[in-house]
């Protein structure tokens, strides 16, 4: 009885996790023990915004990652793979200049960053591609 219920719950969990991976997912990663959203983002070359956008099941504080869970890292056609990890003292104009892209492109591709660039967090991962990514 207990085993049956446990198996059913596990199957439901697997279905839930699998249902979160979009059919047009370009690449995935499996959550390891100790992973954080910014850590996964930095290691996998995905922006903090993109990881959260593609995986709406991750809560705002990113404290509900499940070890073994598969995350989609980017949707085909909307997948930024060129990134910069924010360091202490970084500001948007300098990050854009270093990446060789217009500030407007940086802001467009990182919709979580405000227009004055006053809400950067250390360890946050920004998309720094010169291409324009239109997230749907
Ligand atoms: C992330 O990007 C860096 C710099 O281009 C590259 O060296 C590294 O192999 C990339 N890592 C992954 C997982 O794509």
UniProtKB/TrEMBL annotation:
Short name of one Pfam family = LysM
Keyword list, A-Z: Chitin-binding, Signal, Virulence
Taking every annotated instance into account, which residue ranges of this chain make up the domain LysM? 27-73, 82-128
UniProt cross-references to InterPro entries, sorted A to Z? LysM, LysM1-like, LysM_dom_sf
The residue stretches assigned to a coiled coil in this entry are none
Signal peptide interval: 1-19
* A GO MF term: chitin binding
Task: Supply the name of the protein.
Answer: LysM domain-containing protein
- Source organism per UniProt: Phanerochaete sordida
